[in-house]
Amino acid sequence: MKIRLNNNTEEFDGDGLSVNDLLRLKNFTFKMLVIKINGTLIKKSEYETTRIREGDEVHVLHLISGG
Amino acid sequence: MTFEQITKKLKSRIVGIAGCGGLGSNCAIALARVGIGTLVIADFDIVSPGNLNRQYYFLDQVGMKKTLALRENILRTNSHVNVIGHDIKLDRKNIPVIFAGCDVIVEAFDHAEQKQMIIETILDSMPRVPLVVGLGMAGWGMNESIHCRKAGNLYICGDEISEIGPDLPPMAPRVGIVANMQANVVMEILLGSEVAKW
Question: Cβ separation of A64 and B135 shorter than 8 Å?
C-alpha cells in the first residue's frame, strides 16, 4: 500500500499496518512522539489498534528538547 | 503590500506565545517589530545569567520574571503592542483558557514532554487554531538542515534531529533562526504569502 508519510509517498507490503508496525518498520524509536493520521491525533494507547490504510496521510513528529 | 498595510492588518491579530525562553523571547520581538496587535505571553521562570547567551533579555534583567522582562523589551521595541503576560506554568487545563481567542499559537517550550503536552492539548481542545512548534535547534552550523513543514494546522520549524544536551547546547544563531522562522510562519498564516504556497 502507498501512504503519505511526513509529506513523502512511501510504499509498504500489505494493507492495514498498525501504528506500532509502521514505527517498527521505519525504525522510529523515539519515546516522545506525536502521530496524526488524516488530521486526527492518535494517542499512545491506540498505536496497536489503529490501522493505517492505503492513501492515508500520516505525520510522525519526534519530540526533542530545546528551545 | 507596503509595511504600513501589513502593520494595519496585523494590528487586530492576537498571537499566543507558550514559553519565553530562547524561542519565545526572540519570536515575540520579531512579532512586535512587524506590528502584531496583541501578544499573549506565558512563562513561570525568571531570567538567569545562563539565559543571556541566546534569549532576548539583558544583564540588568537577571532575576526578573521572564514575562515582565519580555513585556518591557517588547514595549521598548514597539510601544503599540498590547502585551498580556501570564506568570504561570502552562498545563493541559490552563492552555485553552489562557490562549482562548488567539489567531495563532507559538510553541516555545524547552522540554520534549512539554512540547508533546501542548501539541496534544491544542489538537484536542482547540484544533482550529494553528500551532507553530520549534523542533530541533541545538548546536551550530548546518543551516540547510533547518526547515519548515506543515501537518494540517500544525507547523513544524527546526531540524527535527538536534536534541540539546551537555555537549550540544542551544546557541543563539540556530535558536534565533528557528524563533524567527516561527515568526515568519505566523505572518504567513495571518497574511498569506505571495512568495511561496504551502
Answer: yes
CA distance linking residue B22 with residue B17, whole number of Å: 12
From the list A41, A43, A61, the residue facing B156 with the nearest CB is A61
Report the C-alpha gap between B104 and B119 in whole angstroms. Answer: 13
Query: Where do the structural domains in chain B lie, given as residue ranges?
Result: 11-191
The CATH homologous superfamily for domain B11-191 is NAD(P)-binding Rossmann-like Domain (3.40.50.720)
- Which positions in chain A touch B161 (Cβ < 8 Å)? 64
> What's the rounded Cα separation, in Å, for the pair B42 and A48?
36
Give the pLDDT confidence of B156-193 residue by residue, as tens digits: 999 999 999 999 999 999 999 999 999 999 999 999 87
Predicted complex: ipTM over 0.90: no
CATH code for the structural domain at A2-62: 3.10.20.30
Interface mutation vs chain B, best among A32, A56, A61, A62, most B CBs within 10 Å: A61
Pairwise CA distance, residues B28 & B36, whole Å = 9
Residues A64, B112: C-beta atoms closer than 8 Å:
yes
How far, in Å, CA of B70 to CA of B86, rounded?
11
Enumerate the β-bridge partners of residue A59: A36
Question: Please, which residues have CB within 8 angstroms of residue B75's CB and are 6 or more apart in sequence?
Answer: B81, B83
pLDDT in tens, B55-99: 999 999 999 999 999 999 999 999 999 999 999 999 999 999 999
Residues 111-130 of B with CB under 8 A from A: 111-113, 115-116, 119-120, 123-124
Question: Domain locations in chain A?
Answer: 2-62
